[in-house]
Amino acid sequence: MAAEALGQDTVRERLRELPGWSLTEDGITRIYRFGSHFAATAMVVHVAQLQEELNHHARLTLGYDTVSLSVRTHDAGGAVTEKDLELARRVETAAEGHAAR
Fold first, then answer.
1. Who contacts 6 (Cβ-Cβ below 8 Å, separation ≥6)?
2. Does residue 2 carry a pLDDT above 90?
């Protein structure tokens, strides 16, 4: 069963609970900055674990001290769904534990 797409207004409203996240053509996106490459890499590993738990995967990019995420649901035609918002919430909680800026 495919996930249900959320309307753009609904997504924007829900993103108010997730500062730093925005709605783009790629879904919902966020860039985190860390104090070192090691800290950014640790965050990638943490996000990978969350993705496996949820069986929902983001486009995840590691820079020197940054981690970029782009999340959307492919089986909903690339739209944003509740799955995406749940992953974003969990990533946000993990980022707090990794002292993201």
1. 14, 79, 80, 81, 82, 85
2. no
